[in-house]
Amino acid sequence: MKYISTNDKTPPVSFSEAALQGLAPDGGLYLPQSWPQLPNSFWDQLGQKSLQDIGFEVSRLFVDSLEDELLEENISEALNFDAPLVSLGNHVYVLELFHGPTLAFKDFGARFMSRIFSAMRGGSDQDLVILAATSGDTGSAVAQGFLGVEGIQVCLLYPKGKVSYIQEQQLTTAGQNVTALEVEGTFDDCQRMVKAAFSDRSLNEKLQLSSANSINIARLIPQMFYYYYAIGQLREGNPPIFCVPSGNFGNLTAGLMAQKTGMPAAGFIAATNANDVVPEFLEHGEFHPRSSKRTISNAMDVGNPSNFARIVHLFDGDYQKIKQKIWGASFSDSQTRQAIKEVYREHDYLMDPHTAVGYRAVQQYTASEQGYFSESESTPKIILSTAHPAKFGDVIEPVISAKIDIPARLKTCLNKEKQSVEMSDDYDDLKKWLMDSYR
């Protein structure tokens, strides 16, 4: 399997090269050059397969750098938690992706990457420096996923004052080989600085850099696994519509990648908050990135989503083809709060703000666009639930007028002392800090 850049100006590379580089030399994002088709036997037996089984069978098609035995061992260790499908009735389901160590779907990618990177690097005598921009959950997942991994240093950039208290505690209290940089700016500024670092030849001559953001193809491959797993748990025969709360659009891109391997899906709903550049594109055909707006679903506060380039490339730049597979909608904070309250009251089910955006999108789609994907009324709609509601108690508790129980593994970080390095949003400051810290 070879990987090509979305900018098409870089020769194809192996998985290990694509993963360890993060960003292609031409500034593009890597995608598989071809799309292997999973055999009929895989689909016939999908309902009997564990998440780990699926992970191994799929990843061996894309990860050519490790022997099967080592790959299987690493996946079993990384994905040692479940992703249950919960029914809300009327053919609407929630896929709970928050049962990992940091209670967010980012655990899938971070834990997979930490083990694969460690195995691929072998006995290298130079530390690998993982750079990651985070609007919330990526940072904590990467911090825990790579914590204590020998030969790897982790540097997390997050926007000051724009993540929840619990998220900040998770990503700033890890210690050991993990450093959090508190940036005076937005997530888009953090992402811009990370991309600039990868494109800086003089920096890359001194340091071995890689990324744990969804710009890295190694983040997206394990996110494909739970799409298959969701279908395996369905007891309805029709191909589902997947509703994906979206910020940087890596999660939705992983679903499109899974479909490329033969996964049945009627279509995808891109659910966003006020940062609506992609729903706007789907409606008008023009992409206008802009500064992000702060919302209560902060992990989706992205004004210039990186993975848009991958989405365009997957559809050969054809706007009409994109529209046939993706429907988009955006929602305000007040609509998000109302969705949390409604689901809690009517279904006795608690959603975090990101999942609530997805729920509201399914409601709007069903009311106004039923049949957009040529589906039937009984077509299942699966909302990807990206984080545990306890991570957003400050938002949710006033809405439901009740306290949320905090899981024990989340409580542990609340009593630790925050450790961060304050930084401006000037790339030169980041470069100097990296050179001083890791050279």
Largest sheet: 6 strands, mixed
Shape: globular
Specify Rg, calculated over alpha carbons. 20 Å
Q: Which CATH C-level class of the domain at 78-103 and 218-408 is it?
A: Alpha Beta
Query: Mean pLDDT, rounded to whole units?
Result: 93
How many beta strands in the DSSP annotation? 13
Low-confidence segments: none
* Share of β-strand residues: 5-15%
Strand order of the largest sheet: 3-4-12-9-10-11
Oligomer: single chain
How far apart, in Å, are the first and last alpha carbons?
A: 33 Å
Overall CATH architecture of the domain at 78-103 and 218-408: 3-Layer(aba) Sandwich
How many H/I helices? 19
As for the CATH topology of the domain at 78-103 and 218-408, it is Rossmann fold
Q: Helix coverage percent of residues?
A: 40-55%
Structure overview:
This protein has 439 residues and is α/β, with parallel strands linked by helices. It has a domain at 78-103 and 218-408: 3-Layer(aba) Sandwich (Rossmann fold). It contains 19 helices and 13 strands. It has helices spanning 15-21, 40-44, 51-62, 68-78, 106-121, 137-146, 165-172, 187-199, 201-206, 217-233, 250-260, 277-284, 308-314, 319-325, 333-347, 353-368, 393-400, 408-414, 427-438, and strands at 3-5, 30-32, 85-89, 92-96, 128-133, 152-159, 178-183, 208-211, 241-245, 267-272, 326-330, 381-385, 421-423. Helix 6 (137-146) links the parallel strand 5 and strand 6 (152-159). The protein is globular and about 60 Å long. The model has no long low-confidence stretch (mean pLDDT 93).
